[in-house]
Automatic annotation (TrEMBL):
Sorted UniProt keywords: Amino-acid biosynthesis, Aminotransferase, Branched-chain amino acid biosynthesis, Pyridoxal phosphate, Transferase
Reaction catalysis annotation: L-valine + 2-oxoglutarate = 3-methyl-2-oxobutanoate + L-glutamate; L-isoleucine + 2-oxoglutarate = (S)-3-methyl-2-oxopentanoate + L-glutamate; L-leucine + 2-oxoglutarate = 4-methyl-2-oxopentanoate + L-glutamate
Name under which the protein is recorded: Branched-chain-amino-acid aminotransferase
Co-factor(s): pyridoxal 5'-phosphate
Transmembrane segments: none
GO biological process, one term: L-valine biosynthetic process
Gene designation per UniProt: ilvE
Function (record text): Acts on leucine, isoleucine and valine.
Family, similarity comment: Belongs to the class-IV pyridoxal-phosphate-dependent aminotransferase family.
Organism from which the protein derives: Halococcus thailandensis JCM 13552
Keyword Zinc included in the entry's annotation: no
Enzyme Commission numbers on file: 2.6.1.42
Length: 304
């Protein structure tokens, strides 16, 4: 990975020195929270997409774990902008992370310090350049998503990603690009690192927050862009597995995955088996916005 400098607990440290102790609480119990944010290369220089919303989610994710992040929004923002500048990055992925450090190794994190770090690195398309144009082949995972009554699924918690890893790797072992994960009730929840949208008869549907999904920031973006383009969006939908196969179009959203069409599920062709017209319209609007080829939605960007 092409990273020279990492911000850790208030200091800029070299890659080699950005280390943690093996008895770190977060390593043993998954007690960390994190974000994944994209910074886009635009005519006005690097532009961080929806940084404020990512920061809101970062601090909110810490709440259920009673984790005190003792760095202000301003400090995290300045650190991130400086990392981008110091490493001369035009576009990058930004990974803020907070976790319980070492004290004693009981499950209780009492007296464990909260540690915070930020890294930035260049990152191309998540599911491949071709995926954005032609769509991906996915399978419904045999793993269910943890329910929001079991863990706070709206918190972006490191430990929860073993579920994403199991679902994603199961898909890749079976020659699919990605998985769709059902929730405990058997409804469609999301991808391992993406939210999901369905298009039927020109209207758009996406599972609501009560379906044990992460409140994705790209999900919110897609909803806003689609509504502004004149579409009806049902953002509290309960979607059954069967409805996936009969959808006119399906697509994933995520900071990493951006807007990726889905062309088949469990080898069943979705619609025409290629990126559908509604997906294409929302996707091209999305790239027009994030590449700042329009002045609209400028409030979504933070510039160094
Ligand atoms: N669901 C899960 C489980 C994720 O990990 C992500 C990626 N953060 C998303 C949805 C999409 O969220 P966002 O658009 O904020 O990246």
């Amino acid at each position: 990975m092409d990273v020279d400098t990492i911000w850790m607990d208030g200091e800029f440290v070299d890659w080699d020195e950005a280390q943690v102790h093996v008895l770190t609480h977060g390593l043993h119990y998954g007690s960390g929270i994190f974000e994944g944010v994209r910074c886009y290369d635009t005519e006005e220089g690097p532009a961080i997409f929806r940084w404020d919303e990512h920061l809101d989610r970062f601090y909110n994710s810490a709440k259920p774990y009673d984790m005190d992040i003792d760095h202000s929004r301003e400090e995290l923002t300045e650190a991130t902008l400086e990392l981008i500048e110091r490493q001369d990055l035009q576009s990058c992925y930004i990974r803020p992370l907070a976790y319980y450090g070492y004290n004693s190794l009981g499950v209780s994190p009492q007296d464990c310090p909260t540690k915070t770090a930020i890294a930035c690195w260049p990152w191309g398309t998540y599911l491949g350049e071709e995926a954005l144009e032609n769509g991906v082949d996915v399978m419904v995972s045999s793993w269910r998503k943890h329910a929001s009554s079991q863990v706070p699924t709206n918190a972006k918690t490191t430990g929860l990603y073993v579920n994403s890893m199991l679902a994603g790797e199961e898909a890749r072992r079976n020659d699919y690009v990605e998985a769709i994960v059902l929730n405990k009730e058997g409804n469609v929840a999301e991808g391992p690192g993406e939210n999901i949208f369905l298009v039927n008869d020109g209207e758009i549907y996406t599972p609501g927050l009560a379906e044990s999904i992460l409140d994705g920031i790209t999900r919110r973006t897609a909803i806003t862009l689609a509504r502004d383009l004149g579409y009806t969006v049902h953002d509290e939908a309960a979607i059954s597995r069967g409805e996936l196969y009969t959808a006119d179009e399906l697509f994933f959203t995520g900071s990493a995955a951006e807007i990726t069409p889905i062309r088949s599920v469990d080898d069943v062709t979705i619609g025409p088996g290629e990126r559908g017209p509604v997906t294409e319209e929302i996707q091209s609007k999305f790239f027009e916005v994030v590449e700042r080829r329009t002045d609209d939605y400028d409030e979504w960007f933070t510039y160094p």
